[in-house]
Amino acid sequence: NNSFRFDRRLFAADVRCSIAYCDGLFHAGVLTRLESEKIKNGLITLLKRADFDRNYFDDSEAEDIHSFIEAKLIQLIGETGKKLHTGRSRNDQVATAFRYWLRGEIEEISKILRKFQQTIIKTAEKQKYAVLPGYTHLQKAQPILWAHWCLAYFEMFLRDRERLDEVWRRTNILPLGSAALAGTSYEIDREAIAKDLGFEGITSNSLDGVSDRDFAIEFVNSCAFIMLHLSRLSEDLIIYASNEFGFIELSDAVSTGSSLMPQKKNPDALELLRGKAGRVFGHQTALLTTLKGLPLAYNKDLQEDKEAVFDTCDTLKISLKVASIVFENLKINEEITMKSAEKGFLNATELADYLVQKGIPFRSAHDLVGKIVLHAISRNCELLDLNLREFKNFSQDIEEDVFEFLSLEQTLARKNQIGGTSPERVFEALEEAKQSLENE
Questions:
Q1: Which residue is catalytic, options 18, 36, 85, 137?
Q2: pLDDT tens column, 50-86
Q3: Residue 428 Cα distances to 114, 116, 269, 301, 431, angstroms
Q4: Mean pLDDT on 382-401
Q5: Active site residue 395
Q6: Residue 137 catalytic?
Q7: Residue 240: which of 319, 322, 138, 323 has the closest Cα?
Q8: Within a 10 A sphere around the Cβ of 348, how many other Cβ atoms?
Q9: Catalytic pick from 242, 251, 258, 364?
Q10: Residue 367 has what pLDDT?
């Protein structure tokens, strides 16, 4: 039954919610003004003592943080402290403190994520002309700008922040006043308490109010999305940092050497980010499994929600901070990425588009380019290494202008629709992304 070792991080949230509830009891005529002031002053004193005494929570035999606060309050102000729990159950008390605490955590995580987005933009701008090969199926596909790659993750994290905002709104509902399950018998103004605590609304059903943990599952699910995106980002960078690719260099701040092999530079930070995703996914599964068979209303199983959410918060926050450090300390090897983007027939699609402009149906152009590529492979060269006569052996529609059409610069420049990788569009997108963050 003892949850004090982990739920004590709800201390400040529970005290602040109790202060608001104390006002509610006063306005309901349950407490006199003197009693109300005495209780509130006592609760404020507890907050101050916890701030200044690092050992405040040590050696307590309290079952949970709620009984701890109540015991401390009674010890401090006497019998009056026992009146605070009038009309309130630990069921709606913990649900309220949990929501209040989580609301603040969501706000903090969103700020950290926004800062990481800013770091991504800054990193993209440092080498915004850098070109690298884009991949499908982990096979070279078409050239893209490094900044375009960065913006892809910016968009993922933008959606993640939108999800956090939605969870925040559904979390920011007050269950206090639901009591154990049937509601309270006292004339408590729940809407006034909600306004006092900054909640946007109150729960409409007391049974649901004490037993709902959808907000906790939604929160962990939103965090799982963020960790998923961090894991994908990490995998990309781990591959790019390998000797086989050599696209990026990681600083010593985010990599380590081997304990045996002196030549190694291991991307430990990125591997840990990738690994931490599984930890959060596990918490998501654990919460779903815990809640899937619970009858209404409150059940002790719900004690299991705290550790999963707490650890998710801790894991996500440190992961985002480490990801920012990684981005601040990586460098694109532009010469290597450029050479890689110029090899592997990444302009083959451009040749097909060139033939389409000459009036050849795309499917026919696609087949024709496949034959030209096979010819270039047989010669161990790239498309731009072929001469015009060789091109004409496959199609008389190919002219001298094909060489400019197939150049890396033109291949990029023609991807000029919104969302494309042309320098013009990418630089516009960078500026828009930067402005969107600044305007928040």
A1: 137
A2: 999 989 999 888 999 999 999 999 999 999 999 999 9
A3: 19, 20, 31, 51, 5
A4: 93
A5: no
A6: yes
A7: 138
A8: 20
A9: 258
A10: 95
